[in-house]
Write a structure and sequence with these properties.
By secondary structure, this protein is an all-alpha fold. The protein is built from 7 helices and no strands. The protein has 2 domains: 63 residues, no CATH class; 70 residues, no CATH class.
Amino acid sequence: MSILIVVGSIYAASALRLEFEGRHFSMKRAYAGELPNQLYEAGMRTTLLLFAVLGALALLALVPKVRIPLLTYLGTGSLYIYLLHPLILKQLGPYDTTGWVDSRSKIVLYLLATVLLALLLGSKPVRLATRWLVQPRYNWPFKSSTL
C-alpha cells in the first residue's frame, strides 16, 4: 500500500507538472505580489505539505513487524533528533539553505542531506554529548533532607 502511495504521489506531481522551487521549501517568506500570485504561492505550499503528509504515511506503512536494529536504534534516539535539529536550523538561519533546490535531482540531494543530519543527531556520540541537555537528571527534588 505504501509503495502505491509513493508512486501515486510521484505520478501526481509529474502529471500536474509541479515545479517546486527552493523558496517553497523554507516556508519562511511571506506571500508576495498581488492576490493571484499569493493564491498560487499558497497552493504550492499546501501541495508541498500534502506530499509531505503522504510521504510520512507511506513511511509509517513501511514499518515492519520485526525489529530492525538500525531503525530501532534511531527510533530510540528520535527525541534527540527532534530536540537538537532546531539548534542547527537556527545556526543556518542567515543562510539561504533552500535557494539552490531547483530541480528534482537537487530535491533528492536535499532529502538525503536531511536524512544524514538525522542519522548524525541520533548517533551514539551525539547522544552521549548532549544527554545532559535532552535527558537531564532530576534527583535533587527527591533527595531526603534531614531536618
